[in-house]
Amino acid sequence: MRRIRRFEEAAEVAYRAAKMRGALHFYIGEEATATGVCAALNEGDFITSTHRGHGHCIAKGARLDKMMAELYGRTTGYCGGKGGSMHIADVASGNLGANGIVGAGVPIAVGAALGSKLRNDGKVTVCFFGDAAGPTGAFHEGVNMGSVLNVPVVFVCENNQYGMATHTEYANAAPVGDRGPAYGMPSERIDGNDIFEVYERAKVAIDRARGGDGPTLIEAVTYRQKGHTIHDSKGYRDEEEIAKWIARDPIERFKRAVLEAKALTEDEMQAIDAEVEEAITQAEEFAEASPWPTLDAIEQDVYV
């Protein structure tokens, strides 16, 4: 969770220093969802991600230096510097890619899970999507097909309360986490800011999928502490709402829990923070030192 938080903070500083272009969708405040879910996966399992995908990439094992280089537009990035923030993919770690189209990862995840079922490879695919994907046709089609084909997939809705500036209650006629029975699968709403609850509930769903019992739909209720993008004014949210959710910050909640349980000491957590800071510094230095793509790269990796 600290790696995700510091990566996002460092990316914001670099963007405002004109070292990056495009849009950045920060995952700050949602770290427990990606971390808890991916901790329950096996190394060879798959995920599909979203336009707000840095947290998923890091939680699934992506290298910070290659991620930062991609945001900087350099050739050493995951997509050669041509994909940017919303298109990071790392098939080697099981990350089938972030996606700039809302809801588009749902049918992709079902396809990946169908492949696993046909190969009988024992792998599970987790599909991350936001609450704004709930009203889309891709959500209905993908979740329905996943259930009909009984594939090993877990659908994880990250309800961060807003699709751009529209509150989820104005976009979804019913909570996403209540819809499972309509598709013949179990579903539930969980506290997406409690990493222990996220891990435990994700583990049940993942084990169920791996055992051949089909998909599960999980709605993780969380909150993005930043705007929709780096350019967002946050004018549609009042300060009281933001403060309420910051008080439920997943990292601070984790720290309090492990200190009370005497599972970690303050010194051990500070050592983790120092390790993360060093990794962020190295990622930034790697990105800065990496070359820009040459003009002929514009015709590479293009399929017609």
Which terms summarize this structure?
304 residues; alpha/beta; five-stranded parallel β-sheet; 11 helices; globular
Question: What is the topology?
Answer:
Elements lengths: L1 H15 L14 H9 L6 E3 L5 H6 L4 H9 L32 H15 L5 E6 L6 H12 L4 E7 L2 E2 L2 E2 H4 L15 E5 L3 H16 L5 E6 L17 H8 L3 H11 L5 H24 L15
Helix pairs in contact: 1-11, 2-8, 4-11, 5-6
Can you walk through the features of this model?
The N and C termini lie far apart (39 Å). The strands form two sheets. Strands 1-2-3-7-6 form a five-stranded parallel β-sheet, sandwiched between helices. Strands 4-5 form a two-stranded antiparallel ribbon. The model has no long low-confidence stretch (mean pLDDT 96). It is an alpha/beta fold. The chain has helices at residues 2-16, 31-39, 54-59, 64-72, 105-119, 137-148, 168-171, 195-210, 239-246, 250-260, 266-289; strands spanning 46-48, 125-130, 153-159, 162-163, 166-167, 187-191, 216-221. The chain is globular and about 50 Å long. 42% of the residues lie in helices and 10% in strands. It is built from eleven helices and seven strands.
